Fold each of these.
Amino acid sequence: MTARPNSRPDLRYPLVDNGLDYLLDVVGRLATGPGEQPVARDLKYAVLHLQAATEVLLKARLQQEHWSLVFDNPATATRKTFDSAAFTSCTTEAAFERLRNIVGLDLPAKGITAVTRLARDRNALTHYGLTQPAAAVETRAADVLNFLLPFLAQHLMPALAPGERTRAEQTMTVVHAQLRGIEAYIRTRMNDLRAGLAKVADTTVTCPVCAQPALVLAADADPTCRFCLMTWPDTEEAAAEYSWIVTGEVSSTDPDPEDPVQHCPNCSARSLVMKVTTAASAPQTRRLCFACADDFTDTDFTACAYGCGRLLPVDTEETLCPACIGVPFERN
Ligand SMILES: [Zn+2]
Ligand SMILES: [Zn+2]
Ligand SMILES: [Zn+2]
């Protein structure tokens, strides 16, 4: 008989790495070039692995609450059987029920239905091969991704241990980047987002990660893409990435009046992108700050008289920028 390992309480999440690995495989199989469709074999494994990813990641969230919740019958759970993984785990249906009733998560009914349907597809594929039109299967897989990705961002990632979280975020960046190649997912998700995005069209720009017009800028929130859920706590990084990846203009490290990214006269962050196409302005471009979301399209700028390379609006009385005047200005 082997000795029981040191008591390793709830810091153990082998499920997350495992689930994300499945997910990575899924998006890799579903993503295609423009106008192409995934081949039948990729679709088959995408469904099987998406089912596995969903099951594993739902259980990972249950395990964050308490390890006994992943048991088929939590009343009989012991730490020993948990550590040896020699137990029957709960069904996906039970996992949903516990996430709602015990953990108290507000899960969309639409998402639960999508997962249930995918389980049916998985069974059909396992026993009979692909018996349904590929497009329908792909759409159902997309519906599950549309549930699973926000679930991970909202409910699973925030409570991960730091090391694990960094690893998970790295994987998710690759997952997000693949989404642009999954047409069925783009249709499903953009349909869901359309009404909400219409209200913020003035400050919605193309996301550098997923290439969808869903990156929303706001004064009171980090730049966040509603499509791929990527957020940029560093607004200067968001501005530089937008400029470089979306418009192809590289921002230099030193201030320069010709630079595509300038210091914002309002919030002072170097997050004012001089050529931004918003959902409302296309094909015209605007000057928009990625930190405070102020629009400076109609402001005339002049270079700071001290020659520091920053711009300031011509209608101010100053000829020096705040940095050169030495006035400490507020940073957001
Ligand atoms: Zn995005
Ligand atoms: Zn600003
Ligand atoms: Zn200056």
Note: The pocket of zinc ion (ligand 3) is lined by residues 304, 306, 308, 310, 320-321, 323-324 (CB under 6 Å).
Amino acid sequence: MTDPSTSTSPAAVTTDVLVVGSGPAGASAVLFLATYGTSALLITKYGRLSDTPRAHITNQRTMETLRDMGLEDRLMSEATPWEYMGNTTFCTSLAGEELGRIPSWGTDTVRHADYELQSPTTMLDAPQTITEPLLVQAAQDRGARVRFDTEYLSHVQDDEGVTTTVRDRLSGAEYTIRSKYLIGADGAHSMVAADLDLPFEGPGPSPGR
Ligand SMILES: Cc1cc2nc3c(=O)[nH]c(=O)nc-3n(C[C@H](O)[C@H](O)[C@H](O)COP(=O)(O)OP(=O)(O)OC[C@H]3O[C@@H](n4cnc5c(N)ncnc54)[C@H](O)[C@@H]3O)c2cc1C
């Protein structure tokens, strides 16, 4: 592989902002960039968006940003609405004995008004399988480019921007992307963060996650 820091050949692809990862962080970043007219390219390692629900409680502040993006009604039509979010219940199994429950998410009568007074919108329950396609599709509609099966390998930063080396996982071919900025939204095991030696605090992701 050619070292991109010493290569004189121009990058195969250019963009103002390269976003690595199509989870909630990366999909949101590329959506905001595209909406505000910035050239952005999203790359993601796999040939699909999330196929598991994972992050799902979408709070009022997040809903306000999606309202700004014009996506509030669309997400509300696909997600479980606030009034159905109810309690957090502790059971011995999904169909087992109930040990106890906690009124959650402000849906109980004691807290309901507090939540309503806080915001023009409500929280809802939208798993990543719903949110990611919505965000990425809207970003594409607004001019962002998206490359699936494209894996971040490394990057080199200079005074003008960043040269990132990626691998096309279908062909195995490696190539470079030149950008003014690089956003590492590649999850809890972020290679971008590791390459920057960014410090992490706390226990980190649990085994198997
Ligand atoms: C099993 C499981 C259950 C969970 N349950 C919940 C839950 O119930 N509620 C909740 O709130 N949260 C839950 N989470 C946590 C939640 O999924 C994360 O907080 C959230 O996904 C983080 O979003 P993110 O965009 O930072 O990263 P991620 O969603 O992890 O997205 C990372 C993205 O980067 C891409 N990527 C990774 N490496 C590379 C690379 N080298 N090159 C290119 N792309 C790359 C991935 O393909 C992916 O698109 C769960 C997580 C797991 C694993």
Note: The first strand starts at residue 13 and ends at 20.
Amino acid sequence: MDINKEELEIFSRQLILDEFNFKDFKKLQNKNISIIGIGGIGCPTAQYLISSGIKNLQIFDQDIIKKNNLNRQTLFSINDIGEKKSIIAKKRLKGINPLANIKSYHKKISEDNLDLLKKSSIVIDATDNWKTMKLVNNYCQSNSIPLLSSSVVGFDIQIALFVNNKKNHLCLECIFPNNNDMELARCETVGILGTAAGLAGLLSAQKTINFLMQFNQNNNFLTLINCKSLSFNHIKIDKNPKCNLILSKK
Ligand SMILES: [Zn+2]
């Protein structure tokens, strides 16, 4: 199995690991990852996925870089203010691995473009927008696309991976069955520490790699981390028989 000479050098320290022989590494490189939202969580998630050998990545963000993004959105610098996040993120990520295939979309995921997610091996939802989260959950669930949902407010991180296989229903809506348009506590109002967003991003990237490489197949957990105490809680989650997505199919 050939790996390009340049990539061989970039990833040489990773390729020493028993878990990443050329065949396994190639397996990782062949996956298609979609990240929705290149903000405080999306930046480190994308950065570390590319640094760990993910090669096919598409990123979605319709925002422009602002100064108040810089405390946590690690792909951007003061010189990027006013630029499109999607474009700058792609440039920085290509700086890590110039051979990565990165598609950047300066747009919001909506009902009209959900099919852009169709070929994803996994979708990572790093938005803090409840409407988008529900829309993406619904789409991934009905198309059997694995979905990792990651959020952080203040010092609290929340991450869950939904495998979305047809046999065992378990989705975001099962555990957060809000019918109303819930206003999430957003970082604009509650505040956010850069390291908390960074940790959420790193853990999201690790969880994604664990899933893709089948290092850890125990996914029916909601992981809650408090960054002050550095406590990790894995809460077992289960199908909700009253989930709207189940009821709507009956
Ligand atoms: Zn459900």
Note: The longest strand covers residues 147-153.
Amino acid sequence: MKSYDVAECGCPLKLFERPTPQPAGTEVLLRVLAAGVCHSDLHFWEGSYDLGGGKKLKLTDRGMKLPLTMGHENVGEVVAMGPEAKGVKIGDRRLAYPWIGCGQCMVCRRGEENLCLKASFLGVHRPGGYADHLLVPHPRYLYEIGDLAPEVAAPLACSGITTYGALKKLGSVPQEQPIVIIGAGGLGLMCLSLLKKMGGKGAIVVDIDAVKREAAKKAGALAVVDGRAADAVKQIQGHCPDGVWGAVDLVGSGDTVKLGTDCLTKGGKLVVVGLFGGEITLPTAYIPMRAMNIQGSYVGTPAEMKELLDLVRRARPPALPITKRPLPEAYQCLQELKEGKLVGRAVLVPAG
Ligand SMILES: [Zn+2]
Ligand SMILES: [Zn+2]
């Protein structure tokens, strides 16, 4: 099999040819039909997260090993399976849930494998889909996609479930009140679209880029606000007469988290999703005085994967522009993503 791997952080991906794995036990082998190029792949490729103040979190200290085949948004066709793999058959097209845990610990047993401390995520800790084949450890991680095209379904494994998982953390707020979405990139538009499908009241979308604000408006934002405006907090609050009860920060920089907490009403909640990095200084007295909730959200659970796919299959896929690119262009896509040149979501598809 062929794969395009990170052999060295920050260097061009390298083509590797290895024997195609033979699935054993409960394993299932997929032929990759679509592999989304996600913004977090840039972090894996660079090998670190910015912790603010010049500090970095090195991913090789967190269980990432090189060479790494990235790619955690995958749809494939079942081509082989181990003798104990039940529930799928050759030729099935499935979305692979990538946020695989140990399956044994308390967190995994209560259904939150995405929060397992012994994570074994596809494309992070084990080989992902920047390849022609992908080995999945158990059929329970494979989800039916119905009549969704592989390239449309693939991004649901990360950008979809990430925004869905964040919106769910706001409880009933989105159905009762407009919410605030910070960041109008791919995730922001996905978030807007899912919010609508979930019966939400809509969102005030914040971005520092006028082009992205315009895109959010076109995608149905109730209002848009420039996050860099001196009175951004006031503007946001002005659009929410009953107070800002829920906000989702898809950027996660020091500035955006500060903006998010500043605009909340007493008892409101900010869900931080983005991994841009940075730091904030927060007067601790505000936490109790404003009954403030700040919750981090990392991707989503297997149950949320299923809910999301059911929702999308019922209510049409999110209007996320998708660009299909042949697998050998994986590194080029990564570069374009880094330079902000990628239009829509790039999804790698088999070459030729
Ligand atoms: Zn676990
Ligand atoms: Zn991702």
Note: The longest helix spans residues 302-314.
